[in-house]
Write a sequence for this structure.
């Protein structure tokens, strides 16, 4: 009745602790990039990052061997992507809302300030006339 042992799968052997990067800081230093770049690569490019899930915050870690394979597979693409400057997101505004390159909300503040100045000036004039002997 050796069927039980025959169905057992060998457990994968985890890499040694020295092969493990235990934070975003260590991962980014290993790849010689900024932390935000490495986090973006994890989300958009599939950088192999593992997580320990805790009650409030999780911790991240990665294995150097997995990162090396990922880097070697996509290095040319990633380096080309980094050489292209990021284009800021542009928002289109209807032409009738644009006056001298500003959006209407800027004019609202300007008009409000102007209205306060006019009311203040008129109030001062009325007060001056009323206090005249």
């Amino acid at each position: 009745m050796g069927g039980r042992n025959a169905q057992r799968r060998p457990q994968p052997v985890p890499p040694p602790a020295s092969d493990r990067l235990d934070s975003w800081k260590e991962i980014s230093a290993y790849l010689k990039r900024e932390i935000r770049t490495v986090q973006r690569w994890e989300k958009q490019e599939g950088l192999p990052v593992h997580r320990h899930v805790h009650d409030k915050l999780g911790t991240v870690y990665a294995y150097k061997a997995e990162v090396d394979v990922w880097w070697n597979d996509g290095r040319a693409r990633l380096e080309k992507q980094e050489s292209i400057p990021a284009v800021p997101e542009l928002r289109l505004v209807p032409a009738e809302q644009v006056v001298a390159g500003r959006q209407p909300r800027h004019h609202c503040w300007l008009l409000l300030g102007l209205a306060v100045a006019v009311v203040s000036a008129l109030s001062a004039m009325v007060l001056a006339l009323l206090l005249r002997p």
Observations:
- The longest strand covers residues 59-63.
- Strands lie at 20-21, 50-52, 59-63.
